[in-house]
Design a protein that fits this description.
The protein is α/β, with parallel strands linked by helices. Helices cover 40% and strands 15% of the residues. Helix 4 crosses helix 5 (164-173) and helix 8 runs antiparallel to helix 9 (231-239). The mean pLDDT is 92.
Length: 268
């Protein structure tokens, strides 16, 4: 097993554990990640996941030693995304080379990034909802050097996060992007001292797990569905959230009227 899974109440932590390859992902590890995150999504007791890695390296990308052993005269990845795919959770199409990066989960995932998150590892970090990076961590399209393309969502998610100009800079140069620059341009949301990324991500996950989950997940889904969509389409999608008022909003308003949450307090 190349994956470690830890559970602490409603928080599930998933760690890649391949120190011999700086946590690079081979096909077996990719399948384990895919299955692990689907299991998290199906677990009624799990609300938020933290995605990190053991031994001080988030992920060095797809395992190039494995890639170098592939037959150059045969398709590297013979299973295609169907041309008529209309979207969905992503388990109805073949898994991506890095594992879960075609999945659209119903619950948030927070990346805890230490060391390198490069090439396909960067794509896994971009797949997450938020990223917590340690000061010595870095990202980069390091696969630029070897003729290995971004095929795990990198060319889709990177421009959406940082804008097309910055995305082209990173994609075309393949340069190293230090953690402070990542925070500056929007590649990470939290910057912490070395050794603190997992703890910070888990603390965030516990805070998020305290909120009414149907409302939280619906707002998350609405934001994702409206990402890049025309305004009218985004507003139509957002309006579907009105059913949550009956499910959770009225009860929440009643709690407020009885004295909870005054002064902006999140403790109750």
């Amino acid at each position: 097993m190349a994956i470690i899974v830890e559970r602490d109440g409603s928080v599930t932590s998933v760690f890649i554990d391949r120190p011999q390859a700086r946590n690079a992902v081979d096909p077996e590890t990719a399948r384990e990640l895919f299955d692990t995150f689907l299991a998290f999504d199906a677990d009624d007791d799990a609300s938020v996941a933290v995605f990190g890695s053991a031994h001080g390296a988030f992920c060095a990308g797809f395992d190039l030693k494995h890639a170098g052993s592939m037959d150059p005269d045969a398709p590297a990845f013979p299973k295609d995304i169907p041309a008529d795919w209309k979207g969905g959770r992503g388990d109805e199409i073949p898994p991506a080379p890095m594992g879960p990066s075609r999945l659209t989960l119903s619950k948030p995932v927070i990346a805890a990034v230490a060391g390198p998150a490069v090439a396909g590892g960067m794509e896994l970090a971009l797949w997450c909802d938020m990223r917590v990076m340690e000061r010595s961590a870095y990202m980069g399209v390091f696969c630029r050097r070897w003729g290995v393309p971004l095929i795990d969502g990198g060319t889709v998610r990177l421009p959406a996060l940082v804008g097309m100009g910055r995305a082209m800079d990173l994609i075309l140069t393949g340069r190293k992007v230090e953690a402070e620059e990542c925070e500056k341009i929007g590649l990470c949301e939290y910057l912490v001292e070395d050794g603190e990324a997992v703890a910070r991500a888990q603390a965030l996950a516990r805070d998020i797990a305290k909120f009414p989950q149907a409302c939280l997940r619906r707002d998350r889904q609405s934001a994702r569905a409206g990402w890049g969509a025309p305004l009218h389409a985004g507003l139509i999608e957002e309006w579907k959230s009105r059913v949550i008022v009956e499910e959770e909003g009225i009860a929440g308003a009643k709690r407020f009227s009885e004295g909870a949450g005054r002064g902006g307090s999140f403790s109750d």
